[in-house]
Design brief:
The protein has helices spanning 12-17, 19-28, 45-57, 77-83, 91-98, 141-145, 176-185, 195-202, 216-219, 257-260, 264-274; strands spanning 3-7, 31-36, 123-126, 151-154, 168-169, 188-192, 207-210, 227-230. By secondary structure, the chain is of the alpha/beta class. The strands form two sheets. Strands 5-4-3-6-7-8 form a six-stranded parallel beta sheet, with helices on both faces. The chain is globular, with a radius of gyration of 19 Å. The termini are far apart.
Length: 288
């Protein structure tokens, strides 16, 4: 009997993007065990995200894992990152290549968010990411919030500075499932590259993701209509895997020009222009 044990070591985005992979594993293995996350970045991350995925994987979560078995993946990311030197497609697609599984035609990441908080806002923003990665954090969220009416902010309390008092502040108050529900009901979502932005894409919101050091070919969510990448596209971008810069530098490169010089005017103009077209494929970019 063929068994596999799946361990996702990473954050919210890794868990969400693993959903299609796990679905396919269930087609090719007799038994699928476990879904775990490393929780060094976010306290009780698995407990927070579990309500979003429990209906999909309630028959494999929390199952005892036989100690005598050998599993093909622990965790799923590391063999992929050790196998591929270049990133010409998203990491969730390379998981299939690494483990010789057929890639699905559609990367379906439906989540269980409909039982969350019912509150509609015009704009929902997320100004966060892992604290050690300043090269993901765009610094102009306060000014952007002033440009729109009925704005809400989600995330942790330390994510986002100088947020106007009229913004509805859900930071540190609501659950991840409620966050997904609120995002699903908004007119548009704007956020840094990170887990919450992958959540926004997964629930089908009109999603704008701001990229600094992140490699969009590796980290962009599965394609959807009304899913956009906003970036300056400087010659030094992306520097995610460049030694002593990007994520390897911890706090990011000293300049952070890719984020500092991406102005609110540029972002607002990009968003306005995007409404003139039906959708922008993930490998195309509206010029700022």
């Amino acid at each position: 009997m063929a068994r596999c044990f799946i361990q996702i070591a990473g954050g919210i985005g890794n868990v969400i993007q693993s959903v299609p992979f796990i679905k396919e594993c269930r087609k090719y293995f007799d038994e699928v065990y476990g879904l775990y996350t490393r929780q060094d970045f976010t306290p009780n991350l698995f407990g927070a995200i579990k309500p979003l995925i429990i209906d999909l994987f309630d028959d494999i979560l929390d199952r005892p894992i036989p100690s005598s078995e050998t599993y093909f993946s622990t965790p799923i990311e590391q063999p992929v990152r050790g196998t591929f030197d270049t990133w010409d497609e998203p990491e969730y697609a390379k998981w299939f290549t690494a483990w010789n599984l057929p890639k699905p035609n559609v990367y379906d990441t439906k989540l269980n968010w409909t039982s969350g908080l019912h509150q509609k806002h015009n704009v929902v923003v997320w100004a966060g990411c892992k604290p050690i990665w300043k090269s993901k954090r765009w610094p102009h969220w306060g000014e952007l919030c002033e440009r729109y009416k009925d704005v809400a902010i989600v995330g942790f309390p330390d994510e986002g500075e100088n947020i106007p008092p009229e913004v509805t502040d859900y930071r540190g108050i609501i659950s991840l499932q409620d966050t997904a529900s609120i995002i699903s009901q908004c007119n548009m979502y704007i956020g840094n590259e990170g887990g919450t932005s992958h959540l926004a894409a997964a629930v089908g919101a009109r999603t704008y993701i701001i990229y600094g050091a992140s490699d969009h070919k590796k980290n962009f969510p599965p394609p959807r209509d009304h899913l956009y990448r906003i970036a300056l596209n400087l010659p030094c971008q992306p520097c995610q895997f460049v030694p002593d810069r990007g994520f390897s530098a911890g706090e990011g490169c000293p300049e952070l020009s890719c984020l500092k010089y991406l102005t609110v005017d540029m972002v607002e103009a990009y968003i306005d222009k995007s409404f003139q077209s039906y959708s922008t494929p993930r490998d195309k970019h509206i010029q700022i």
